Amino acid sequence: MATVELKHITKSFGDNTVLREFSQTFQDGEFITLLGPSGCGKTTMLRIIAGFEKPTTGELYIDGQLVSGGKTFVPPEKRGIGMVFQSYAVWPHMNVFNNVAYPLTLKKTPKAEIQKQVERVLQIVHLTQYAKRLPNQLSGGQQQRVALARALVAAPGLLLLDEPLSNLDAKLRESMRFEIKEIQKQLGITVVYVTHDQTEAMAMSDRIFLINRGVVQQSGTPEEIYNHPVNQFVADFLGKVDFFKGEVKDGSIVFPQMGGQALPYDGPRTGKVEVAVRPENIQFDPEGPLQGVLEAQYYLGDVDDCRVRVGETLVRVITGGYAYKTLKEGDRVRLSVRDQMVFDDDGMLDEKLQIQT
Questions:
Q1: Looking at residue 357, what is its pLDDT?
Q2: Same domain, 205 and 262
Q3: Is 180 helix (H, G, I), strand (E, B) or coil?
Q4: Which of 236, 263, 290 finishes a domain?
Q5: Average pLDDT of span 90-99
Q6: Which residues contact 213 (CB under 8 A, 6 or more apart)?
Q7: CA distance 324 to 81
Q8: pLDDT above 70: percentage of residues in the chain
Q9: Is 226 helix (H, G, I), strand (E, B) or coil?
Q10: What pTM was computed for the model?
């Protein structure tokens, strides 16, 4: 296990600053995800932790030891870390056993110990029966597990994962998410995981750090970030959401583009606001305050993904798949909403603002 402490980490390439004042502590045994769009700085942060990049300013500690900062720099091989990249990077001429054993072979570990450690980690990643196979005899998911086993075989306290599932198909990605999380819980190691996939982040993380343009926009548990985003970027990046412009008037929020329809409101805000609503939090309700016409619906098996025209606005509603049989396009419907997020003109959330329905 390992604790990672980052103090005022900044990284610039020439005039381009890709990380700004990153300060945080990742605790022993945490699964940390660095999430954000391409080019936001998340992989650069991972490379700094690994020792492949030096921070421009700031200090990095692993288990209380300064490994990067000032005149101090500990190379990657001496940081006690394992790392898995986006590409599998398995040796095509080596079988599974020898691929996994490679880090121990480099350290001149005794053969008996290599045998013991490799067998242990192959069992963890469910590859024992494939020990003698070459990589070209394995599926993509199995090759990724070989790379994971190789990173784990030396028993690192810290495991760094750089978009390791992006080359897999959707079904394999889903199963590998849970496998990696179970392995992390079983071994109790600290994981720092980089992805732009918000579903991966939600499914696997103890804490998420959502980064944009080198700045952490928000950190917290998946539930905290999903339900209480601090700004519109966070709300929009994590999950599905629609934004509706409105104005507070006489105890309601009025939506001009919805034909002047309104939702009750008893918060302290006045003037113009923007209401963010996740489509799973809009319900078909015969007593609902909004009314419109069902314009389209898309049956996805487990859900019915609908579009309702309310005034000039197209409102997305995600309901249970059973609803597909009870609704038809052209129906007049009423909607109620719950768990809304109200933002001011600057795009910042005021958690005290609640629409009452």
A1: 33
A2: no
A3: helix
A4: 236
A5: 93
A6: 40, 41
A7: 50
A8: 96
A9: helix
A10: 0.87
pLDDT at residue number 87: 79
In a domain, 299, yes or no: yes
HSE-CB at 138 with a 13 A cutoff on CA atoms is 26
User: What average pLDDT score do residues 247-257 get?
Assistant: 91
Average pLDDT over residues 5-24: 94
Q: Say whether 170 sits in a helix, a strand or coil.
A: helix
Q: At what angle do helices 140-152 and 96-106 cross, to 10 degrees?
A: 20
- The DSSP annotation for 315-339 comes to EEEEEEGGGGGT--TT-EEEEEE-S
Question: Are both 230 and 276 inside the same structural domain?
Answer: no
**Tens digits of per-residue pLDDT, 216-246?**
999 999 999 999 999 999 999 999 999 999 9
Calculate mean pLDDT across residues 184-199: 92
Q: 271 is in which domain, residue-wise?
A: 242-343
Question: What is the DSSP-derived secondary structure letter of residue 172?
Answer: H
- pLDDT category at 345 given cuts 50, 70, 90 is low
pLDDT band at 1 (very low <50, low <70, confident <90, very high): low
CATH code for the domain in which residue 325 is found: 2.40.50.100
Give, as one character, the DSSP assignment of residue 256. Answer: G
What pairing do the DSSP bridges indicate for beta strands 303-310 and 290-299?
A: antiparallel
Q: What's the rounded Cα separation, in Å, for the pair 256 and 258? A: 5
Please give the single-letter amino acid code of residue 214. Answer: G
Report how far residue 212's alpha carbon sits from residue 218's, in angstroms, rounded to the nearest whole number. 10
Q: How many Cα atoms within 13 Å fall on the side-chain side of residue 50?
A: 21
* Statement to judge: residues 228 and 249 lie in one domain: no
- Identify whether 356 is part of a domain: no
In this structure, the answer to whether residues 176 and 216 fall within a common structural domain is yes
Specify whether the CB–CB gap between 86 and 162 falls below 8 A.
yes
CATH of the domain at 187: 3.40.50.300
Higher local confidence (pLDDT), 336 or 171: 336
Same-domain pairing of 217 and 73: yes
Q: Are residues 258 and 171 in the same domain?
A: no
Contact (CB, 8 A) for 169 and 127:
no
Query: What distances in angstroms separate CA 281 from CA 75, 163, 277, 316, 317, one per listed residue?
Result: 49, 30, 7, 10, 8
